[in-house]
Specification:
This protein is an alpha/beta fold and about 625 residues long.
């Protein structure tokens, strides 16, 4: 098996290859990588269920011999190192290898076969089933390395990459089935085509870009993600489920003085709106880093060659950031290098997708303010009504205030009144005043990162074929799924309704679902206060207040943002935009679904009464 490396920890199996994998099931079962996995499984059985080994006649083997091949399951395991010295393990491994192509009856008569194989048919089959499950419990990734991107029009390298990923899945399934059938002597009538190889394949290549001199040694040589192959639904269970605190802008570069083991890193070049962010991530965060594929478009070769607006290193050695305090999630404006730089350490408490997404969006927002645009934290959609008329709605609010949930309620419950709900921004974007004085809204992401509990029933199930689901059995379970296109994100649509998503106030006679704000001062006061009921997506509890509901850039640069907000809201009122607040009630117990639905229905009534623009 031509794997260059196999890295295993408690959650992930990361395989590295130069393109080819295996030609046959026999080659797979004979590989060093297969042997390492089998020995780790025996370690697990010795620690947790030794009865399985006793039934195979192995019993306890004393001190684990696997220290000579890479240590425990939470350390790196690299094929080709050391030899296994326990003869019982060697006999079992050789037996499994023989069973890949021979029935148990024949294997039992081979020299060196464990005694009593035929009477242990059941325990041996149970062992193989457990080994297969043990392998599939890891989040599995295959990184195929190439020196450079293929020439324009040359699809052969990408076809080879796709074939390598799919071939691995076929071979692992086939090996499992062949061994099981050769043990039992029976063929199952139900075959389940699970993603038994890699759940995500990555085609990573070297790429030249104008690296600033001070970061050249640090970053040059780390390969770029150019193509991905996913087997959704992808289920990940990272250690953390919430994000804490704010990202801090610091006076010195967090990248200064860093050294990296470059072979452990990949770069995902993300198109974040009109900003390019190179997101470098350590293999310890591989699943989270590759989940960016459902959130941000991969930058083109030309955009990579032109260089980024920002660089973000996710998973640096913790000691390197210790000087920034107890919560070292930091960014810096490196003006001499004309680059924003950010870093977060490789610690379990930061193993949450929100740290990836929100830092990338923070960098986007700072870049937007520098070019004179006001960033917003909100969801923006273009609605096409039944008569063909149009209306655009921007809902601004903090995390889990009902922005995305209200838009999904529009899609589900407004189906008989709407032809289309087109997402422009799901979580972050910018507002800009055009030369004619109109207000335009832009997005930043092609995907959404939303709470499973807050989606309309059945919606997540209908999107399983393209979803990445995180922490499904925990509080704040989330799904990452694509919801729009880069063309719509970058188009720039005129804003008709600009609303604050109020999730903490109940609707009553004096608090309507939709409330229009009378003037700029009143509107700025509501949006600036940023009140929201926490929903467990961060470590905050109760009603919180966040400057413009946007702690991702504006809060760090209030003076710069305040001037942009004043001019933007003035333009909105001059242009006749409906400015107000929408009470989604998402933060109120028992209103998690009914609140966004009522908000969606009231919004549709308002659009119908106010009148939409002709198409």
């Amino acid at each position: 098996m031509s794997l260059q490396r196999l890295e295993l920890d408690e959650r992930q199996a990361v395989m590295y290859s130069d393109g080819s994998v295996c030609a046959s099931t026999q080659e797979l079962v004979e590989s060093a990588a297969f042997g390492r996995v089998l020995h780790l499984y025996i370690d697990r059985l010795e620690a947790q269920n030794p009865a399985v080994l006793e039934e195979l006649g192995m019993g306890a083997s004393g001190e684990s011999p696997t220290a000579s091949v890479g240590g425990a399951v939470n350390g790196p395991v690299t094929p080709g190192r050391g030899e296994i010295e326990d003869p019982r393990r060697e006999r079992l491994l050789e037996t499994i290898r023989l069973l890949a192509n021979n029935p148990l009856e024949r294997v039992s008569f081979t020299a060196g076969a464990p005694p009593g194989l035929l009477v242990r048919r059941g325990p041996l089959h149970e062992f193989v089933e457990g080994l297969y499950d043990f392998w599939r419990r890891w989040d599995r990734f295959l990184v195929v390395r190439a020196d450079s991107s293929p020439a324009p029009g040359d699809r052969r390298p990408l076809r080879g990459f796709t074939e390598a990923v799919e071939s691995l899945a076929r071979l692992v399934r086939a090996l499992y089935r062949d061994v099981a059938e050769n043990i039992t002597g029976a063929r199952p009538r139900v075959l389940r085509q699970v993603a038994a190889g890699a759940e995500v394949g990555v085609y990573a290549v070297g790429h030249r870009w104008p690296v600033p001199a001070r970061y050249r040694d640090l970053l040059t040589g780390i390969p770029f993600v150019r193509d991905l192959l996913l087997y959704p639904p992808l289920l990940l269970d990272p250690p953390a489920t919430t994000r804490a605190g704010q990202f801090v802008e610091v006076d010195e570069s967090p990248l200064a003085g860093l050294t990296l083991e470059q072979r452990d890193w990949l770069c995902y070049p993300a198109r974040v709106g009109r900003t390019t962010v190179f997101v470098y991530f350590h293999r310890g965060f591989m699943g989270l880093g590759l989940s960016l594929a459902n959130l941000f478009e991969v930058a083109s070769d030309e955009e990579v060659a032109a260089g980024p607006d920002a660089v973000y290193l996710y998973g640096v050695p913790p000691a390197a950031l210790a000087r920034f305090g107890a919560l070292p999630a930091v960014f810096h404006d490196d003006r001499p290098s004309r680059l924003l730089v950010a870093a977060v350490p490789l610690e379990d408490r930061f193993a949450y997708f929100g740290y990836l997404k929100k830092m990338a969006l923070t960098l986007h927002n700072v870049c937007a303010m520098d070019r004179g645009a006001m960033p917003f934290h909100g969801a923006y959609a273009r609605l096409v009504l039944g008569d063909g008329s149009l209306a655009t709605v921007l809902l601004i609010g903090d995390t889990a205030t009902g922005k995305s949930e209200t838009l999904e309620a529009l899609r589900v419950f407004g189906a008989d009144r709407l032809r289309e709900v087109r997402i422009i921004a799901d979580d972050m974007g910018t507002l800009e005043v055009d030369p004619g004085g109109g207000l335009l809204g832009f997005g930043s992401e092609i995907g959404a990162f939303v709470r499973l509990d807050d989606l309309q029933k059945g919606y997540a199930l209908g999107q399983l074929d393209r979803s990445i689901i995180m922490s499904p059995s925990k509080v704040n379970a989330r799904v990452v799924l694509p919801v729009t296109t880069l063309d719509d994100v970058l188009h720039g649509y005129p804003v008709d309704f600009l609303l604050y998503a109020n999730n903490h106030e109940a609707v009553d006679a004096t608090h309507p679902v939709v409330e229009r704000l009378s003037d700029e001062a009143a509107a700025l006061a509501v949006f600036r206060d940023g009140a929201a009921m926490s929903k467990g997506t961060t470590t905050a509890v109760g009603v919180t207040h966040s400057y413009f509901a946007n702690p991702f850039g504006p809060a760090q640069r209030r003076g710069q943002h305040e001037a942009l907000a004043a001019s933007t809201f003035a333009a909105a009122f001059r242009a006749g935009v409906f400015v107000g607040q929408l009470r989604t009630q998402l933060g109120l117990p028992g209103r998690e679904s009914a609140g966004p639905r009522a908000a969606a229905e009231a919004l549709l009534d308002l659009i119908a009464a106010k009148g939409a623009r002709p198409s």
